[in-house]
Write a structure and sequence with these properties.
It is a single chain. A hairpin with a 2-residue loop joins strand 4 and strand 5. The radius of gyration is 25 Å and the shape is elongated. Strands 1-6-5-4 form a 4-stranded mixed sheet, with no helix packed on it. A 4-stranded antiparallel sheet has the order 2-3-8-7, with no helix packed on it. It has 2 helices and 8 strands; from the N terminus they run αββββββββα. The protein is of the alpha+beta class. Belongs to the small heat shock protein (HSP20) family. This is Heat-shock protein Hsp20. It comes from Streptomyces wadayamensis. InterPro entries: A-crystallin/Hsp20_dom, HSP20-like_chaperone, Small_HSP.
Length: 143
């Protein structure tokens, strides 16, 4: 079967997807960093200009979902935008959390346009030392 493709049409489609504002049904990805600090995972999302009331954080089973919406700044009638380069619309990111994380103790902070989530490692998953005991069978043999 012969298929004819137009590389310029595909390039236009990709450009539209990257530059179009995100919607609730098709959100745009948001940049993030993740690291481990001791017994806690720290995940930071860049959300400059987003009202904290427009951020949703949900955990269902082991799926963490962060959604946020950035709306246009000046909605006044007499405002005429000269330059509009900041992306608007809906942003979303989903992370699959390991079973070793305590999803009941997640903390969220929002400061200076950065949403930071702190997810502790569950107690049952933390490293612990096992004490070796001498059993009765060991004492009988060496007896």
């Amino acid at each position: 079967m012969l298929m004819r493709t137009d590389p310029f049409r595909e390039f236009d489609r990709i450009t539209r997807e990257l530059t179009a504002p995100g919607t609730w049904s098709r959100p745009t990805a948001m940049p993030m960093d993740a690291c481990r600090e001791g017994d806690t995972y720290v995940v930071s999302f860049d959300l400059p200009g987003v009202d904290p009331e427009a951020i949703e954080i949900d955990i269902e089973r082991n799926m963490l979902t962060v959604k946020a919406e950035r709306r246009p700044a000046g909605n006044a009638e007499h405002v005429r935008m000269e330059v509009a380069e900041r992306p608007l619309g809906v942003f979303s990111r989903q992370l699959v959390l390991a079973d070793t994380l305590d999803t009941e103790q997640v903390r969220a902070d929002y400061d200076a346009g950065v949403l930071t989530l702190r997810i502790p490692i569950a107690e049952r998953a933390k490293r612990r030392r096992v004490k070796i005991e001498q059993g009765e069978s060991h004492r009988q043999i060496t007896g």
